[in-house]
Amino acid sequence: QRRHMLQWHAPISRFAVAVNRTAPPSPTPLGNAPSGFRGPFARWPRAADAVLAIAVFLAVVFLVDGPGDSIVTRPIGDVPITALLVYAVASAALYWRRRAPLAVLGVALVAWALTLGDSYSQIGGVAIIALYSAGRYATEDRWGQVGVAAAIAVVSIDLLNDPAPWGEAVFGGVVMFVAWYVGRRLRLRSERAAELLRGQAAEARRIVIEERTRIARELHDVVAHRVSLMTVQAGAAKAVAAKDPEGALRAMAAVEEAGRQALDELRHLLGVLRPETGLDGLGPQPGLADLPRLQFEC
């Protein structure tokens, strides 16, 4: 009997080791290590985007370039109504920069183009944010590259009406490209990390399934041996029942004991091989032993 117990205890131990090896690491207690920092744009994306849109609108309306590369404020009365409407539309579009980044980029570039040629062309910052959002959240790089080219063209046209050196046009084009490229690199890095996690989870599931199958096959052999023993003993009891009733009773007692051991092994087997049921609510129903807990919950 001890030999049979060891036969199925070994594969179960190997299965437990395999599950522990493939399971994800447990979270570190808060007292031992600080948790990863998550900024407001990750914790509250919609609220953060709304605040960003409002802040950009206020900056575009009230902040302008002053003498000597300084930034000065201007009264809202100095801004025409049409310019205010364009600023409002371009800034409000940033609220949807995660869900429709290419559309937001198009709105920002069109709004910037509409204000070219006057002193109210202040939407370059909106275009930079839109380019970053297109690289970060848009999955089609081709349209992002088109947006970068369009932004560089708008920068060049804007400087045609301004006696600024062409070095500023080159710098502006580089800033537009870098904004889109940084967003794109962050998106690709997050996609690679997510793909790596999916691959690790799939590999863990495959290893657990293979180990489960192997354990089921080995334990089937153990239980089959027990049932075969019961069959032989029952046949022996039937053969000697008429001549040796005491021997037949002993054989039937051995059959009963073997049956109990086989049931115990089967219960343990099902407990090991049963998938986790905590998420779908399909686990065993409560029994009499759970009655006090059920009364407390009610």
Quick summary:
The protein has 298 residues and is mostly helical. The chain is 72% helix and 2% strand. 18% of the residues are buried.
Task: Lay out the secondary structure.
Elements: H1 2-22, H2 40-43, H3 45-62, E1 63-65, E2 71-73, H4 81-92, H5 101-114, H6 124-137, H7 141-160, H8 166-240, H9 245-273, H10 291-297
Antiparallel strand pairs: 1-2
Helix pairs in contact: 1-8, 3-4, 4-5, 5-6, 5-7, 6-7, 6-8, 7-8, 8-9
Description:
Helices cover 72% and strands 2% of the residues. It is mostly helical and 298 residues long. Strands 1-2 form a two-stranded antiparallel sheet. A hairpin with a 5-residue loop joins strand 1 and strand 2. Helix 6 packs parallel to helix 8 (166-240). The chain is rod-shaped and about 120 Å long. The two termini are 45 Å apart. The relative contact order is 0.08. Mean pLDDT is 76; it is low at 1-35.
Number of strands: 2
Tertiary shape: rod-shaped
Task: Report the total helices.
Answer: 10
Low-confidence parts, pLDDT < 50 over ≥5 residues? 1-35
Q: Please write the string of helix (H) and strand (E) elements.
A: HHHEEHHHHHHH
How big a fraction of the residues is strand? Answer: under 5%
- In round numbers, the mean pLDDT is 76
Helix content: over 70%
Structural class: mainly alpha
The Cα radius of gyration reads 36 Å
Largest sheet: 2 strands, antiparallel
**What spatial order of strands do you see in the largest sheet?**
1-2
Query: What is the straight-line distance between the termini?
Result: 45 Å
